[in-house]
Amino acid sequence: MMDRFPFVPLPERPKLVWPEGKRLAVWVLPNIEHYEYRPEFVNRRNAWPRMPAPDVIGYGVRDYGNRVGVWRMLDCFARHGIKATVSLNFGVIEHYPEVWQALRERGDDILCHGFYNTRYLWGLSEEDERAVIRDCVETYARATGGEMLPGWFGPAVSGTFNTADIVKELGIKYTADYYHDDQPTLVRTKHGALPCVPYSMDINDAQVYRWQSEGVEFARMIRDAFDTLYEEGAETGRVLAICLHPFLYGQPHRIKYLDEALGYVMGHEGVWQATGSEIADWAMREWLPSWAMPEAGP
Questions:
Q1: Which of 121, 215, 228, 258 could pair with 254 as two cysteines, CB 3.0-4.6 Å apart?
Q2: Measuring CA to CA, which residue among 237, 295, 289 is closest to residue 24?
């Protein structure tokens, strides 16, 4: 996998300067997802392990996100002037058209998160996986009047050894499938270099929830991560991903902690509140190709 991910230690990289000399790029990623009540295709993992089905608790809390939580979260973003990068299951476009319309009206960036968070890429043949990702590209084009799909993030964090090659082959701008850096990196594919914008599995409410931590702790984690990256960003630019789920931090007992944390982050000078597309474009145009462009491979 070293061939897939060219390794350059952080101290040996040239200085990264964000637009207008900003020191920290912050992208905010609500994962707006659709979970099938009765999945037609189960691959490698049971989406609803609380059996016997139906798992009304597991399904119900996630359905809450699109019925209620997403609207509360979007209102929070609006208070802080945040343009989100939405990690979107494309099933939302069909099943929740009001959500899709709201995202279009806000002008949020779209990071494709597959079709359903109950259908995984694990174990698919290269041909089948290509068909899945191509379907996403075509769905986005139909829904937007011909726009190209900006970014890719595997459904339920699933993928194969072929995913990056297919993403690049189909013309998607960047990936968020890897979580190994505080700066944009390059992924080597059979079709050339694919930029990766850092996602986070730490500053991520779904992970914090699994650790049985709640709002106060998650808000503290966001502030602490911000403080470190903001300080380090004075030397060379960093990226902070704040990864969210409306069914979790769109809940009435948690939203105030998200609101407080976002207010803290956005209250600092030197913050570039950017989308995934903006970060990828800037990194490719101004920084990565000068020193880290790998040859086609592996």
A1: 215
A2: 237
